[in-house]
Write a structure and sequence with these properties.
By secondary structure, the protein is mainly α. The chain is 33% helix and 0% strand. It has one domain (2-31). The model has no long low-confidence stretch (mean pLDDT 80).
Length: 42
Amino acid sequence: MRGKVLLALWDTFKKNGIGIPYPHREIIVRDGAGQKGNWAAR
């Protein structure tokens, strides 16, 4: 029963363009000055 409800919700969300974002585990470190090099050594 629970699976059918979840699938119905998923299909309804998809039909109406609603997406559920997944958590990201990627960390992006950017140097604002545009310098190249090993940021961990700083």
